């Protein structure tokens, strides 16, 4: 017994130390058994200078990007989050399915009230049958811009990858950087009724690279040994843009998407929407030199201004002349929808999977923008959307409004007045969504406000078809579902037609965020076997702020293994 205690103590100590590891580590050996990982997250402000500008940003432990959470499949992760800033905070563990632990999921006003200044909350969950690259991020206001970091979950001891073990692995976080305070920025954008200004720079692991003002030396770099193969864990933690990623003269082989294995697929570039993660292999098989690793915009919407310059990092061979010019990476055009489709077509589950064939709950959900009529007495100030209206966004034309306490708490404690259960399973009005939805903004592009949820029975086999609308503009929307991974059984352009839609029920990818094609549709399937209150929303932050979301409530099943436990004692209060 004493030995065991000593071992546990030692392991816990080691776990805490690992908070301070740098994040390009060589994959290491792991002690056997279901382990527990402890982390101490302090939400703290920090002064940083980027693009010749010094400002305060909100971080975890004064790191940007934040500390990496390392674990192993089936491990328990415990993170105490203490808020030492004046802002409200929560942390969401993106892609973690939170089996029977919905209380620890993190989206503000959905599963918890924010952690207020000076308060703390301890998140506890298990990586049940999950491994791969995930990330954590703030899920309140626009703090995610700087409050984010990777979660790396290794296979169980002795279990190998489905590809040759890489020589080294590196985390590559794609981000967006604003010189303005992002909490104020959200408020200002919402108050204006208009669009969000673009980010001041894209970043790779927090570094913009040489293409921006004053950033020639603010560059992330990976040193590589000629001939070796590297695993890059790509994470898009950006707010409002989808991004292409490519390395000059090098092929990328995708082996995992959204923390699930895929059939190896080799490509010149990938596209990740915010909320998506992807593991790619890169072999240093080119002449010794300095190659650019670049992140550029994918903008499928019309008439939106966006950051057009790409962020660049270096993929630098040992022996390359340090000050040499780097070879530029070839990124697709910002509007190359075909390049995006090609990446999607390449994503297949590694092995045949068990897709629900019979469906109990069939939902059809439109996703898109709205323009509401101006209600302000100062339209020049507050109605800067299209045709002097105010921008909004919706699912089935319902614009999601956050309640004043969390929906989970209201549901669990049967507190009335916080939400309704009438989220429609289909649009209230059908139209040619993809090509000609009502578009006389703001006269007939009005959304209905509501905190509406859809209640689903435990064990239901759900199919959900997302349909992009052309109200204001068609656009690729990265739709994320909390609490589940889902099979992406089909997608296409135009309007969804059940008679002609082609479904892959053999080896569809198992994802948690699906980029619904611009002016098109995507169909997902999953079994609702995880009780709780689960947010489903566009991971473009501005769309979420405008209401592009809805909530699924999955009821308890029978007995303890199918029932959500009691809330933790330290659950934050609003
Ligand atoms: Cu990564 Cu609800 O978010």
From TrEMBL:
Q: How is the cofactor bound?
A: Binds 4 Cu cations per monomer.
What GO cellular component entries does it have? apoplast
As for family, the record states: Belongs to the multicopper oxidase family.
EC number(s) of the enzyme? 1.10.3.2
Q: Tell me which species this is from.
A: Hibiscus syriacus
Broad EC category: oxidoreductase
**PROSITE patterns (alphabetical):** MULTICOPPER_OXIDASE1, MULTICOPPER_OXIDASE2
- Which UniProt key words apply to this protein? Apoplast, Copper, Glycoprotein, Lignin degradation, Metal-binding, Oxidoreductase, Repeat, Secreted, Signal
| A Pfam entry, by short name | Cu-oxidase_2
Q: Answer yes or no on keyword Secreted.
A: yes
Per UniProt, residues of the Plastocyanin-like domain are 43-156, 169-319, 439-557
Q: In the record, which residues are listed under signal peptide?
A: 1-22
Looking up SUPFAM superfamilies in the UniProt record yields:
Cupredoxins
Name under which the protein is recorded: Laccase
Primary place of residence?
A: secreted
Q: Give the Gene Ontology MF terms in alphabetical order.
A: copper ion binding; hydroquinone:oxygen oxidoreductase activity
For this protein, the record's Gene3D superfamilies field holds: Cupredoxins - blue copper proteins (2.60.40.420)
Catalytic function, reaction form: 4 hydroquinone + O2 = 4 benzosemiquinone + 2 H2O
* InterPro entries (UniProt xref): Cu-oxidase-like_N, Cu-oxidase_2nd, Cu-oxidase_C, Cu-oxidase_fam, Cu_oxidase_CS, Cu_oxidase_Cu_BS, Cupredoxin, CuRO_1_LCC
A Gene Ontology BP annotation from the UniProt entry: lignin catabolic process
- UniProt entry tagged with the keyword Phosphoprotein: no
Described function: Lignin degradation and detoxification of lignin-derived products.
């Amino acid at each position: 017994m004493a030995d065991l205690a000593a071992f546990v103590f030692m392991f816990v100590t080691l776990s805490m130390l690992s908070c301070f590891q740098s994040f390009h580590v060589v994959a290491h050996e792991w002690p056997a058994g279901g382990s527990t990982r402890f982390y101490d997250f302090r939400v703290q402000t920090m002064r940083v200078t980027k693009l010749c500008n010094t400002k305060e940003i909100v971080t975890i432990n004064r790191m940007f990007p934040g500390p990496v959470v390392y674990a192993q499949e089936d491990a328990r992760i415990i993170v105490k989050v203490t808020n030492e800033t004046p802002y409200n905070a929560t942390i969401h563990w993106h892609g973690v399915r939170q089996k029977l632990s919905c209380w620890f999921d993190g989206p503000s006003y959905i599963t918890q009230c924010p952690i207020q200044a000076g308060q703390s909350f301890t998140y506890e969950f298990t990586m049940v049958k999950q491994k791969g690259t995930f990330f954590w991020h703030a899920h309140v206001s626009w703090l995610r811009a700087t409050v984010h970091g990777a979660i790396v979950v290794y296979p169980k001891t002795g279990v190998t990858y489905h590809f040759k073990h890489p020589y080294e692995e590196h985390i590559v976080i794609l981000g967006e950087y604003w010189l303005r305070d992002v909490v104020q920025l959200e408020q200002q954008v919402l108050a204006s009724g208009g669009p969000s200004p673009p980010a001041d720079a894209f970043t790779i692991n927090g570094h913009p690279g040489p293409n921006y003002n004053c950033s020639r030396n603010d560059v992330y770099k990976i040193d590589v040994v000629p001939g070796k193969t590297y695993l890059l864990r790509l994470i898009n933690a950006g707010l409002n843009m989808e991004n292409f990623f490519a390395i000059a003269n090098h092929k990328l082989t995708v082996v995992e998407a959204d923390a699930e294995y895929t059939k190896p697929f080799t490509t010149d570039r990938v596209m990740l929407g915010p909320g998506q993660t992807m593991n790619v292999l890169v072999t240093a098989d080119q002449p010794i030199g300095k190659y650019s690793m670049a992140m550029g915009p994918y903008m499928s919407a019309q008439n939106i201004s966006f950051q057009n310059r790409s962020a660049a990092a270096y993929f630098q061979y040992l022996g390359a002349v340090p000050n040499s010019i780097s070879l530029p990476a070839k990124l697709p055009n910002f509007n190359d929808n075909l390049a995006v489709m090609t990446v999607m077509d390449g994503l297949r589950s590694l092995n045949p999977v068990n897709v629900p064939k019979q469906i109990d709950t069939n939902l059809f959900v439109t996703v898109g923008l709205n323009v509401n009529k101006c209600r302000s007495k100062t339209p020049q100030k507050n109605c800067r959307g299209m045709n002097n209206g105010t921008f909004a966004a919706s699912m089935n034309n319902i614009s999601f409004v956050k309640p004043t306490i969390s929906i989970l708490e209201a549901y669990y404690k049967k507190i009335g007045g916080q939400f309704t259960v009438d989220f429609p399973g289909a649009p209230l009005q059908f139209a040619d969504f993809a090509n000609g939805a009502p578009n006389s903004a703001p006269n007939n592009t009005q959304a209905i406000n509501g905190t509406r949820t859809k209640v689903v029975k435990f064990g239901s086999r759900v199919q959900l078809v997302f349909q992009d609308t052309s109200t204001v503009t068609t656009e690729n929307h990265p739709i994320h579902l909390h609490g589940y991974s889902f099979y992406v059984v089909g997608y296409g352009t135009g309007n969804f037609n059940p008679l002609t839609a082609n479904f892959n029920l053999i080896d569809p990818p198992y994802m948690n965020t699906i980029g619904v094609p611009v002016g098109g549709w995507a169909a997902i399937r999953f079994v609702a076997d995880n009780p709780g209150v689960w947010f489903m929303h566009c991971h473009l932050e501005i769309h979420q702020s405008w209401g592009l979301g809805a909530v699924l409530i999955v009821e308890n099943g029978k007995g303890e293994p199918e029932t959500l436990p009691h809330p933790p004692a330290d659950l934050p209060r609003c």
